[in-house]
Amino acid sequence: MSTSAKNVPAATDVARLAGVSQSAVSRAFTSGASISSKTRSKVMAAAEELGYRPNQLARSLLRGRSQLIGVVLGNMENPFFPLALETLSKQLNTHGHKTLVFTNEANQQADTSIEDMLNYRVDALILMATTLSSSLAEQCQAAGIPVVFVNRISHAMCCSSVTGDNDHGARLIAQHLVDAGYQRIAFMAGIETSSTSRDRELAFTDALIAMGRDKPMRVVGHFNRVGAMQAMRQLLEQAQRPDAVFCANDHMAMAAIDVARYEYSLTPGTDIGIAGFDDIPHAHWPGYDITTYSQPLDALISQAVERVLSQSNQYDAIHTVVKGNLIMRSSTSPTQ
Question: What is the pTM of this model?
Fold first, then answer.
């Protein structure tokens, strides 16, 4: 039976056709509710005939929970974040939650997207590669909506965060490059306002200085391919060009490798060392084979999911650091 947009079947229509009460219709569509198999079958048959689907948003208003987790992504170009979104969606689904996804400019304030999301009565917010204002963070806290940053740290006191071990990872990469014999080392930053890029750069620079090395040469790749290619050309055009480059993520390291190999005829790992951070699947590809520090995605997302679902502690901001590992591949020389 077809219906027009102006004549959408309601639960009362299903109840009338099935010969049951409206509450029986509601129980038939509620997982775990008490209802006989015979009555459920009658309701489902009537619903199929009428083309009825329960209004989940209306049902959520009755429950006081929408089962929706709002997600704002600020950098879809970097393969790390689509993979993170896929992992997040799967993990939330096992807990009976769905994701409502908005995209945003990389590392820009997500206030407008979040204000739109709040109209959908999301139960919590997860932000990746984006920021929000302190005032909106306080509004979320007042509304009882937990906010968790993944791979970023917020200055808002009420927002939790889950990050990889930026400090330890950057120090291990510095140690590896020095041990491999590199002398002129450079750092390719991401976005200047990014806590991720800043933390990796500070630890990397501090580790080099502690080993008696100069501060690294510095360029900014803006966490995107075009920016990273331009930054790599800037480094390689110098009279004393670097013999090793640590890029703040694997996505930029891939661009740096392409520039070195195809524009300057340099072989990564032989003529120049290039390292990244994240250990995205592309870093394993034979054409790149990037030395990097891993961010265990399943563990990162599990921690974020735990935070947004821990409603009893929604006002307590917790900052979790997930350990990774240094993975040495052929894009850098082996340790001497």
Answer: 0.81
